[in-house]
Amino acid sequence: MATTSDFRNGLCINYNNDLWQITEFQHVKPGKGPAFVRTKLKSLTSGKNLDNTFTAGVKIDIVRIENRTYQFLYAEGDTYHFMNMDNYEQIFLDKAMINAPQFLKDGDNVDILFHAEEEKPLSCDLKPSVVLEITYTEPGIKGDTATNTLKPATVETGAKVNVPLFINIGDKIKIDTRTASYSERVKS
Fold it and tell me: Structural domains in the chain?
């Protein structure tokens, strides 16, 4: 058993019969009354965020998790198939466990978070950004780079992203997977 003095960002704890990851914490020692720890927690099972306050010194149950790299093979409906590159073992994840499934391309590497004691996958995260090719968009207008106007575009995975007016079919763009938005055009 650990205490609140062991808190750090990224630490996973078992709290209220759920797995929570600490995203932020702050030790507070007021002038009057006992010290406490203010935390922001993210549920690893549902993705909900929670602001919680722990009394300083309270016992907590730490859960060991592991981040493993897997390669995306293919999707079959809402089931996504991944392969461990070390031992070629395959696992299947539901679409809801993946942070940006619309940007997954065959052969992409992803990080899958596992509950180490139970060998159970908790979540799947793509890299912070991916480079994809534009397969369809309205024709661009030369010299139209001064405004922040965006137009819809379809990338090679079938996902739709808003891009600047100067982007054309065949251009490669970098997409931020956390916000599902255009970042920049990639020079070939």
Answer: 2-62 (2.30.30.30), 65-125 (2.40.50.140), 130-186 (2.40.50.140)
